Model the fold of this input.
Amino acid sequence: MDREGQPPALKINGEQVKRDDLEARLAEIFLKRAEKVVFVRGDDDVDFQDVADVIDVARHAGVQRVGLLTKGERFGRGIEAHKLWR
Done:
């Protein structure tokens, strides 16, 4: 929940996605990709359980590796990454 008591907004590549549609959209995206890696960023006011739930949905959709984006280290085109799990 965010500070106003609303569920956090979910976006894939900047496009808003309903929570009920998240797994199907991710499965569709990663179906034909050789590298099944997703990066997740939760805003400061988002509870980590919400982030963990998104990671769980991604794993069920076929994602094999998850990276958490933070305000920490930078790589590539300004993308920030904290940790990568297998």
User: Anything to note?
Assistant: The helical segments are 22-30, 48-60. DSSP finds two helices and seven strands in the chain.
